[in-house]
Design goal:
Blueprint (H helix, E strand, L loop, with lengths): L3 H10 L4 E5 L2 E4 H17 L7 E5 L4 H13 L2 E4 L6 H11 L3 E4 L4 H7 L8 E4 L8 E3 H6 L15 E6 L9 E5 H14 L7 E4 L6 H13 L3 E4 L5 H11 L3 E4 L1 H8 L13 E4 L6 H10 L5 E7 L6 E5 L12 E3 L4 E5 L12 E6 L6 E2 L3 H7 E2 L2 E10 L4 E7 L4 E3 L2 E3 L1 H9 L4 E11 L3 E10 L7 H9 L10 E4 L13 H11 L3
Helix pairs in contact: 1-2, 2-3, 4-5, 7-8, 10-11
């Protein structure tokens, strides 16, 4: 079995079912399979060999998912690029990945021209610009001139399928090598953990260069013969209009995206079709879950997913039946994965104690591309060290406390920002919040709160500190507070605390 066969099997069983919707375009599984095969054969005719990197700089779109499956059928390694990257960052990915093939959207033509003189490793470029001239190939022409039969390429589950670059919150992004086996086992884990149903209509608002959107949301929908509505770029009004028009049944997004949907006037859109919400990137507080149930009145289940790129990405899933019962929880480990909570010496910790999450299983990456040192550090003894701090209860449910690197040590006490943030989220005037550790000459580090207030609300620094003091041990309360318009986040919705810490240091007189 390989990932490409997932589309082949679904297209054979449900050829006339709508597979894809994107803006004004709709495509059945028969049409999707036909175009993917043409694209795959075209790449083979250009000389694509198993293991060749195929880079894609595209918004969420039909060509993006056509290229994904064309690679999966030919042995190409799909290498999506963050469409928010600068020219310098795009060049880094293209150069570091050793991509031979590069497909990019017309919107990125100007950016690509800036880096083209340096692209010594890219042999074939494919664009959507109608004025494209050799050596750059035109996507639709290239596709139409290629045969539509199924490519006859033997692939092993151990063959590489994706090269997914991490968000790069610190330093250069690292490329996680994911095999066909990794994707297939992640699919099995997701199907069971999220209790997926055949034929669901899912609106994909997360960027498809991220494993959560591509592997958990999109690939799962193809495997279950459902319909994927691809949202080019997230806009809360457009998302609600699409839900109303297409009668979407599933929505997947980070908590930050859901908060933007809450900002729209109540009752303006018909959202009764939504029956399932899935979320990831950060903890979804119970208060937010209750607001989701109000926003989507026929909601039957919310599924919290915890994972990382290196795990393709699923590690734990909190099922709908436990969603409100297990507060601030990410669920139990997915079925085909071992998870442990360990101390700094790698020893298992008893239930309730905080340690690092490590995991081992067939969905864990092969390693980082061209980075043996980082691979050794991440995969110690075959166990993926996530860098996340968590505790596990007696039933095996996991509660993420924080990132190991974000933990604050103040006066010898370990302080976990996530705990304080959860308290702040419950305040009726606070829309968003982040807690960081900042240098303190007396205590080593002190707690600083960065707050986004709800529209029209006001608070003082003293009010925030006193509120936290009334709910937490005194040493955990913020020592300083900053009010901002918004928090910086990476594409998966995680707050970029490194930037917040850097900004604080710039505010201090030298």
């Amino acid at each position: 079995m390989d990932v490409g066969k997932i589309l082949t099997l679904t297209a054979r069983k449900f050829p006339n079912r709508v597979a894809l919707i994107c803006e004004d375009k709709r495509m059945t599984y028969r049409e999707y399979e036909d175009r993917v095969n043409r694209l795959a054969n075209g790449l083979l005719q250009l000389g694509l060999k198993k293991g060749d990197r195929v880079a894609a700089l595209l918004f969420n779109s039909i060509p993006m998912v056509e290229m994904f499956f064309a690679c999966a059928k030919t042995g190409g390694v799909f290498t999506p690029i963050n469409f928010r990257f600068t020219a310098e960052e795009v060049f880094y990915i293209l150069d570091h990945s050793d991509a031979r093939f590069f497909v990019y959207g017309e919107e990125f033509s100007g950016l690509v021209e800036k880096v083209r003189p340096k692209l010594t490793k890219v042999e074939f470029s494919i664009s959507f610009n109608n004025e494209t001239a050799p050596p750059i190939l035109h996507y639709e022409t290239f596709l139409e001139e290629s045969p539509a039969q199924e490519p006859e390429i033997f692939l092993s589950e151990n063959d590489e399928c994706q090269l997914m670059y991490t968000s790069g919150t610190t330093g250069k992004p690292k490329g996680a090598i994911l095999t066909h086996e990794n994707l297939l086992w992640n699919l099995f884990n997701t199907l069971l953990g999220r209790e997926e149903q055949e034929g669901e209509i899912s609106i994909v608002i997360g960027p498809l260069y991220h494993t959560a959107a591509l592997n958990n949301h999109f690939l799962t929908r193809v495997a279950m013969a459902g319909t994927s509505i691809l949202v080019k770029q997230f806009d809360p009004i457009k998302v609600m209009e699409i839900i109303e028009k297409e009668r979407a049944t599933v929505i997947s997004g980070a908590p930050a995206a859901y908060h933007l949907l809450f900002s729209l006037p109540e009752g303006q859109y018909d959202t009764r079709s939504i029956t399932k919400c899935t979320t990831g990137a950060s903890i979804l507080p119970n208060e937010t879950k209750l607001r989701l149930a109000k926003l989507f009145p026929n909601l039957k289940g919310i599924y919290d997913v915890y994972g990382c790129t290196e795990a393709t990405p699923s590690i734990a899933i909190l099922k709908a039946k436990d969603s409100l019962k297990k507060k601030e929880c990410v669920g139990a480990a997915v079925p085909f994965l071992e998870v442990r909570i360990v101390d700094d010496q790698g020893q298992d910790l008893p239930a309730g104690e905080v340690g690092e999450v490590i995991c081992r299983g067939p969905n864990v990456m092969k390693g980082y591309y061209k980075d043996e040192e980082a691979t050794r550090e991440a995969l110690q003894g075959g166990w993926l060290h996530t860098g996340d701090l968590a505790r596990m209860d007696e039933e095996g449910f996991i509660y993420i406390v924080d990132r190991k690197k974000d933990m604050i040590v103040s006066g010898g006490e370990n302080i976990y920002p996530r705990e304080i943030e959860e308290i702040l989220y419950c305040h009726p005037k606070i829309e968003d919040a982040a807690i960081i550790g900042v240098p303190d000459p007396l205590w080593g580090e002190s707690v600083r709160a960065v707050i986004v207030l709800k529209k029209g609300e006001s608070m003082t620094e003293e009010e925030v500190i006193e509120y936290c003091k009334s709910h937490l041990a005194s040493y955990k309360k913020p020592k300083s507070v900053e009010f901002v318009e918004s928090l910086p986040r990476n594409p998966s919705g995680k707050v970029l605390k490194t930037l917040l810490r850097q900004r604080y240091l710039k505010l201090i007189p030298s």
